Amino acid sequence: MALGEFSLIDRYFKRLASPASMPGMVGVGDDAAILPISPGHKLVVCKDVLVEGRHFFSDVAPDALGHKSLAVNLSDLAAMGAKPIGCLLGLGVPTINETWLASFAAGLGALADRYRCPLIGGDTVASEQGIFISVTALGTLHEKQPGLLRSAAEVGDDIWVSGPLGVPDIALRILLGTLADPQNRLPGLRVGLERPEPRVALGQQLLGVANAAIDISDGLTQDLGHVLQASGVGAVIDLEQLPVDQRLAVFDPSVVRDAVLYGGDVYELCFTVPAQYRPRVIAVGESLGLELFRIGKVRRQPGLFAQTDGSLTELKPKGFDHFARSAR
Amino acid sequence: MALGEFSLIDRYFKRLASPASMPGMVGVGDDAAILPISPGHKLVVCKDVLVEGRHFFSDVAPDALGHKSLAVNLSDLAAMGAKPIGCLLGLGVPTINETWLASFAAGLGALADRYRCPLIGGDTVASEQGIFISVTALGTLHEKQPGLLRSAAEVGDDIWVSGPLGVPDIALRILLGTLADPQNRLPGLRVGLERPEPRVALGQQLLGVANAAIDISDGLTQDLGHVLQASGVGAVIDLEQLPVDQRLAVFDPSVVRDAVLYGGDVYELCFTVPAQYRPRVIAVGESLGLELFRIGKVRRQPGLFAQTDGSLTELKPKGFDHFARSAR
């Protein structure tokens, strides 16, 4: 039986998070949960777990791993438009390797400093088998701000992404040995896989501009699919408009297209914005020095379709599934 | 090299949680961290990780495991005097066993309902090797309330514990096969090990009464030692006053004494209270139907000493250490 993590959470744990138990809460299933903690403020919390051999290679540079452990959680906060306030670290390690720990802490700490998201607690335990990392990140939203919910996309919205896609998946394929790298592009590309930059400032600046947002951790098709499903809408994206990292031009175009449509671990934001706010999105991008790409449009008819040469093809998710995918 | 979890956190991660990075924060090292999140409220957060083969047996009843995963975190909130508001679950499982997951979720959910601490998010991943569980619990404190800090014990305070000690350690020894159980006491005793009851209401009622508090997760000697060290004080406890579960009377008294002084996994609170508040502590205990035990006194001279028959013996920690102890 191969259930994905979404089905798992849905089936066994979602009912534990009933709206009745916490009025005003937006529960399990979005990038992060929102709690109306006090007048004036809402708390935003998320938790992502990384496991050795599944989410990272055993020989990954420990400072990159420390960076990524926090980055994937900051990305979830960004996808809600939240301002980070702190994080907690759960860490299981088989042995105490001081060099490794110091480097891991340095990588996590540098990102925590940059986004003012200090480590405020945690638990470190022995794990006989392998390394696992469970980071919880906390952020805040003003009480009048609904946040960038997955369920808030509206018919007619433009669909945007915050940067080029495809690099992490191509880097992963090279590292797994399933894609040749004759021009030795890996050293540049693996930075995209191992040191994603969470779009923290962008998320906050999209408040009041964007309707819905999600981070592309599981692949554009799967993640945009979550937004469409939660919002009860459909979409058409224009394959010609999808931003592709130009360093990928040396690889087989069909492999690159798959990486762009289905490849996970990207941590760019995908967001939907009413068409009349197009100039505001462009202004936000310019203020942050970030090129933003308009890739499609939300429509009433359900399903996610790709448009190319005037014809439409339905895109079915084949993104990242922690239980279906072979270990890395 | 055998560093304990405390040294690990201290050495590599504590400096990441500098007060400068979060004014008003009480950082890594207490049962939970306190953040001044908004006018009127402080947020209290904690995270405890449980690993198969180390913190629980592989064949533990899954509903008991779900209960305990949340209970140990609610206990940390209780030790701060915080009111629970929600929790997040990070779960790694090797395979998808629907019966196991449903039972685990039921155990966690029942405790979450009882303490109004709904599951608000999480991440479930495949873990090739074994089960690990990382729960984060969130609570609140009123802004005028400092919380029950480890560092707040005062010279002259009485030292109290919230219930009998020793049961979980004796149950563990029987389960490990290192202690004989001729009268088959295990069925009753293992409930104490596997289904600890967090002292959530007690913690909140001790606000304004107690100075310092901690939960006895790592053993009375070690945990009270943390309070004394953080507060820059010492203490004398009266061995005759230590509450021992009467079901332990059938075991060797020296084994029981060790279990009471050093055995972890108890999740009773140990707290210090100015002597003039003694009647208030008794009233709190009566209002909750909980027998509270006064076991000693805080004094200026450093170190933790046990008094018996008029002589003093220094107690050195040999409590739970996740890296020194053999796997369960």
From TrEMBL, chains A, B:
Residues 206-305 form the PurM-like C-terminal domain. Keywords: ATP-binding, Kinase, Magnesium, Metal-binding, Nucleotide-binding, Thiamine biosynthesis, Transferase. Mg(2+) 5 binds at residue 218. InterPro entries: PurM-like_C_dom (IPR010918), PurM-like_C_sf (IPR036676), PurM-like_N (IPR016188), PurM-like_N_sf (IPR036921), ThiL-like (IPR006283). Its EC number is 2.7.4.16. The keyword Metal-binding applies. ATP binds at residues 122-123, 150, 217. Mg(2+) 1 binds at residues 48, 123. Mg(2+) 4 binds at residues 31, 76. Mg(2+) 2 binds at residues 48, 76. The keyword Repressor does not apply. GO terms for molecular function: thiamine-phosphate kinase activity. Mg(2+) 3 binds at residues 31, 76, 215. Pathway: Cofactor biosynthesis; thiamine diphosphate biosynthesis; thiamine diphosphate from thiamine phosphate: step 1/1. Substrate binds at residues 55, 265, 320. Residues 29-140 form the PurM-like N-terminal domain. Belongs to the thiamine-monophosphate kinase family. Reaction mechanism of ThiL seems to utilize a direct, inline transfer of the gamma-phosphate of ATP to TMP rather than a phosphorylated enzyme intermediate. NCBIfam families: thiL. This is Thiamine-monophosphate kinase. It comes from Orrella daihaiensis. The gene is thiL.
